[in-house]
Amino acid sequence: MQDEPEVVVLRLGHRPGRDDRMTTHIGLTARALGADRALFVGDASQSRETVDDITARFGGPFEAEVIESYRPVIREWDGVVVHLTMYGERVQDVEADLREAHAEKPVLVVVGAEKVPFDVYEEADYNVGVTNQPHSEVAALAVFLDRLFDGRQLDREWDGADRRVVPMETGKRVVDPDE
Ligand code: SAM
Predict the structure, then answer these.
(1) Which of 3, 72, 73, 155 is the residue whose CA sits 20 to 30 A from 171?
(2) Which residues have a Cβ under 8 Å from the Cβ of 50 and sit 6 or more positions away?
(3) Could you say which EC number(s) this protein's record lists (predicted)?
(4) Nearest residue CA, atom 22 of ligand 1?
């Protein structure tokens, strides 16, 4: 989020056709819940376009990028690398340390799709489980970002939107953002 060290989500192992929707949802969740950028590995240009389109309509800043290889990103990351995995340390045990680290340094949050190569576990500064049960990378990312930002992301402001949703008890209202 603005005025804080950046948080970047790295999505591994995109399989065209199989992972398209999940990869898009990783990007949308990263954007909505406070991350600054998403990196999609592989042939994920459709996901990037969808995320860019949402950012153009509903605001940013948020960047989505397609990259060829994740290893240089992890290896050269100048900050903290967090890999979300059901085998990791419990998020409730490490969240305070991670918030403290994020006050000083950028955080790279790595999420998988299929089997994650072991070097990712080794290169990560933290392997973190959102429960130690198998579920979804989108769910894990959402809970993790909420813990990292401690709820602050729910109040963030959006720049450059061409529309704003007015929260309502019932019904839908979308207005000009300057209204
Ligand atoms: N079977 C794969 C493996 O062993 O690496 C993981 C498949 S899972 C559907 C895809 C991704 O969801 C994982 O790479 C991880 O990032 C995330 N994930 C699933 N369950 C999780 C959990 N309990 N905590 C954190 N992340 C989780």
Answers:
(1) 155
(2) 24, 27, 28
(3) 2.1.1.206
(4) 86
